[in-house]
Amino acid sequence: MTDATSTAGPEEAVRVLRDDHERLLTVVGQCATAVTAEWDGDSVTDRERVVPPFRRALDGSGALSRLPRALADAVTATGRPMAAPPVAAPPYVVVTGEGVVLRANLGDGRLVVLLRAFEVDRGGDGDGGDGGDSEPHRYRRIDGVEIEAEIV
């Protein structure tokens, strides 16, 4: 018999996303690949060539509107309560230069899930604001969609 107060960790949220939302993750990956098809090479340095087109592709494919349900299922898998139903907008669903961040406030913290579709090479050691020779960020498509989750 399971204790009603027991909670699972973020690995259970990842399992649910992989098992129950495999098709959605495939579509997220296809959207990322479609974005990179518009690039001149295998990477870009302009964030505007990543985030806005990725968001449009996710929206056009229907994936953006399905991500809140995936987030709710991930939260349910942890056994924790969610403060409010998620919507396909910040702070619950955020499209970034690395992929999609899903966030939900829980009774005892916050579940944060990254559906990573791009890697970001941050360039030089500096922050780029000192007039030095810091290289700009470089965005590259990774193979597939990696899922990272944590409860903070």
UniProtKB/TrEMBL annotation:
Pfam families per UniProt: DUF7988 (PF25950)
Highest taxon listed in the record's lineage: Archaea
All copies of domain DUF7988, residue ranges: 12-150
Full protein name: DUF7988 domain-containing protein
